[in-house]
Amino acid sequence: MFRSDGAFTVKISYYIFVLYGIFLYLCNSYVYMKERVSAMQFDETKEYTKEELIGFCRYYKGEEESPYQDEVSFYWAVEMAWVSFVENGNSFSQMLPEYIASGLDEILIDNIPRSLKATLFNRFCQYSSGGLHHSSKEFQREYQRFYS
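Above: the chain's sequence. Below: its structure in token form.
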């Protein structure tokens, strides 16, 4: 049935040790990622430095001119404008209600600040054709393409 020699016990002990190490690694990775995600939550009431605001951006990294030559340059420009807007203490009182009314606030749930998504949506609607409903569906598709 079962062998009780020392080699078998050593092998089993080794495998248990390896599995325990993998388990600890995965637990630590999960805790690290959870802390990282919660640390990246944007607080609309807090004042941020320019560098902290740039940390929320996907494409804008503080450059004076866009390093992109394709459609990403649109998102870069909007992120740059958003950083400047927030840094100067401007209000999003016009853009946020429009963004929320579109229903996107319930769909696009991630760590990108709502005010940045509202700004992206506002600019997207301005430059695309069609009504708000059409633009929100189009924007959702484009947002997931560039921010997922």
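The longest helix spans residues 6-39.
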